[in-house]
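User: what does the whole thing look like in 3D?
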Amino acid sequence: MATLPAGVSAADFNAAIAKFKAAVGEKNVFTSDEDVALYRDAYSPMWGTPQELLASAAVAPDTVEQVQAIVRAANEHKIPLYPISTGKNVGYGGSAPNLHGSVVLDLKRMNRILEVDDRRGFALVEPGVAYFDLYRHIQEKKLKVWIDCPDPGWGSLIGNSLDHGVGYTFGAFRDHFGSHCGMEVVLPNGEIMRTGMGALPGAKSWQDYKYGFGPYVDGLFGQGNFGIVTKMGFWLMPEPEAYQSGYVSVPKRHDLIALVDHVNYLEHIGLIGQPNYSSPLGRAQRNEPDLRALVGKAGGPSDDELDRFGAAKGIPSWEVELQFYGPARTVAANWEYARERIGASIPGTTFRDGHSYRFPMTEEQKAAVEHKVAVGIPAMSIFSIGARSELNPSPTDGHLWFAPIIPKTGEAVLESQRAFAKVYQEFGLNVGGIFQTPATWIYRAFVMIVGLPVSRSNKEINAKSMAAFKRVVEVAAANGWAEYRSPPAFADLVADSYSYNDHALRRFNEQLKDAVDPNGIIAAGRGGIWPKHLRGGRKA
Amino acid sequence: MTNRREFLQIGLAATALPVAGGLFASGAGATVAPSAPAIPLYKVLFDDRFAEGKAFGEVASSLGLAFHAMQGGDVTDFWYHDLDLAWRAEPKPIAGFTRHGPLFVLEHSGWDRGLRVVFRAEHRSLGDGVIEHRLSGPAESLSTAEALAPAGGDWVRLMAAMVTQCAAGCSQPAERTVVTRGAASLPDDETFYSWVIAPKA
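Assistant: Here's the predicted 3D structure for the full assembly of 741 residues, as structure tokens:
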């Protein structure tokens, strides 16, 4: 018998398991050690330690009625459930629960694509539908819409969206929760609720208008634990006629400030999709020992020193890739406009053309695309980046994502680089640093994400990463920054940093939790929200 | 039924290795022959950026097995255009020689279809042509592991034969560690994997 949930008797656990089997069939309830082990977090920094968060069992329904039956049985026997969609959220916990001993409610068998409309531009899907599945459906039906998918594309649309996951095309679509429209939710009491226009019997615009009438409650189910989402609508981007990318390079460190302002303008006015920042000077460290020495000197280099080095070598400080989507003529015109606008503002700016594509593409053309997700093609290529390096000393064992939100300005990037670099240096971690550029998935903010290494064989690495994680969360909070997403092991720590007015937000969420889920059966601890009887065990 | 000598000769014939006297006849240690039939493989996947990967694929090809050479170590094309469709129809066994990433993807995707890794060999390059091989799988399949050491730089061809002839229906998992010395193109301090994914017993 696996670890029982805390406070649950063997008799209650066994009775619930029997009811789960009655609901979904014996073969879809998993209690053997071998089967339950499949729900471990492959990237857990606590792998194989007494602190590792493990499931006690798993149950895999195929219909919403089966989900209801499971929820009712769980309520009756006070069994904590941890819903997952496809369980591929590696780096953020995978399919392991926040509460040790929870029963994983595995929704991957609910994998129906219920509707895709390429005129109104939406899809309605179940939790087990992966990005690859929806992409294949769209390709087979020759529909004129794109998906926006994360890297990698094996995860669930619903699961990724509910964890506030992100993608790579236009801003409105990159925000996967923001681009959803309408949910069906099994509430903790077993009732089915539909949100937005879906609350209207016979609604004809469930996937067209989010808000319906009255309070908009969908946000409670993102990174929350107020119900189990069994259907969700998503807006899809129309297939454009053309794509063009172009690269803009600026010479000096502080040119980043003006560059970000220009790029923000281009993005927020709708001319570009995701901009991708990088640092040519940072990359040059590999081949420039003098630059490495400069960067490594006590106290670090000044911006002027770096600018002088870059000028002497002809290496720009920053580069951004702009991505244009739309009719071929306007794509070309928008790239021309971007060059004129930025070139007139920042001395020494240089430009070069990037990739150019027309749609629809043949399979051969798709295969040749370097960054497939930028044109709505799901990929697994991120798993081919696994070479051992100083940056990635244990490539086979995973990482912890530390993903703090900062303002979408050049000043914030430069400030956060130095603030976080101090911590990483303190812990001897070769991540981040003064050349780190922001991740730009989120439409209106930057993410200064790093992957802290995890090792199955070296517990010192894990201890160091966990200590560093705790420290950077504190440093971030002291600077007014915080994480947008967290592995379960750090959910309490991150939630604790959102402490305005004596944790008013958390207290409000807890009040809701007590009212909606009095037995605390749904995803205890997710989002840092614990049911009343477990709040004493909060880790922060 | 294939005996131990015939089993190893499959790899030998495929590799065009000289039949070094005593290499397979030395019989160091136990001489348990594979007593179960080999797992019928749907396809063999390999990373063709390295000589060892290409050699692995050559053995699969010479054994008449269908194979797929991964481009740039990326499993996407194989997954989307081939395996996902095949596994939707029927979860079929596959084998491969890859880095950890593709194995991680296929192992986890296989779990969703009732498949498991039934044979796994970690090949870690320690530098100067020294490779440490840590094998886990059916005891019958590992009974030939000792032949790896004298194979030197040609270990991968024997490994390919071992993997593609992995015993089906064996319930006794075992582990072995073997070290080989010889020419190697694998990057130092890197780990590669030979593996078989097959339906859960």
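In plain terms: Residues 35 and 140 of chain B are 7 Å apart (CA to CA). Strands of chain B lie at 43-47, 67-70, 94-98, 115-127, 130-138, 173-181, 191-199.
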